[in-house]
Amino acid sequence: MKLDSVLIVGATSAIAAATARALLGTCSTFVLAARNSERLNIIAKDLRSRGADAVLSMPYDALHDTDRDVVADTQQLLGTLPDAVLIAHAVLPEHDAIVHDAANAHQVLEINTVSVLALCTHVCRHFEQRGSGILAVISSVAADRGRRNNFLYAASKAALDVYLDGLRLRWSAHWPLLRVLTIKPGYVRTPMTAQLASMPLAARADDVGHSIAQLLRRGASGRYYIPWWWRVVMTVVRILPDRLVMLIRH
User: Fold this and answer.
1) Residue-wise pLDDT tens digits, 130-164
2) What's the CATH number where 75 sits?
3) Which of 103, 104, 130, 230 is the most buried (most CB within 10 A)?
4) Range of the domain at 130
C-alpha cells in the first residue's frame, strides 16, 4: 500500500519516535503531534537530518484536545490526508495512586481510552470518504487479562482492542483498501515503564519501532504481538486460574 505520509499522534513516545526513524526510506513526509513541544522539535530535527523530505509538527494534548480533529488539521498542513495514522500516546499510572482516586483514574481513562477512540472516529470518517488508509494503534498485552496490579491501565487498553476489532470487521466488509492494525507490545524499556520494578522479557523501543514499521509497510491488518511470542505467552495467561494469576505482579 502507498505509505508516503504518516500522522503520528503521541510522537514523542519512545516507541513512536523509533517507528518514525524506521519508516525513513519508505515514508517521506511526517506530521508529528504531541504535547511536549521541545521534545517534538528534537525528534523532527532528527528525522530531517536523517533524510526525511518534510517533517511538520503540531501541539496535541490528549487530556484537553479530545474533540479536536487532528486528521483534518493534518490535511490542512499537507493538502491531502495522510496515508497512515499511528496513535501512540498513553500513560502508565502508579497503580496504588489510582485505586482509590477517582479523579486520577478518570484522567488515565481520558488519555488512554477516550482521546484515542475520539481520534479513531475522525480517522474512520476521513478514511472511509477516501476509501484507503492505515489506522495503527498501540495497545498492550496487558489488555488480554486483568491482574492484581495495573488493572486500570489494562482496562484502558482492552477497550481499544474491542473497538479496533469491530472497526476492522466494518472495513473488511466495505472498504478493501482500509487497514486496522492493533499493535500489542509486551514489556518495553521506555521512560514510561521506568517505574516498574521488574520487566521480564523486556524489548528495546528501537526493536519494537522496527517491527511496527515493517507492519505498516506491508499494509498489515489485525492484532500483532511484538515480539510475536507474546501471543503464546498471553494465550497461556488468559487460561490460568486466578490463584496463579495472583502471583504475577506486573
Assistant:
1) 999 999 999 999 999 988 888 999 999 999 999 99
2) 3.40.50.720
3) 230
4) 5-245
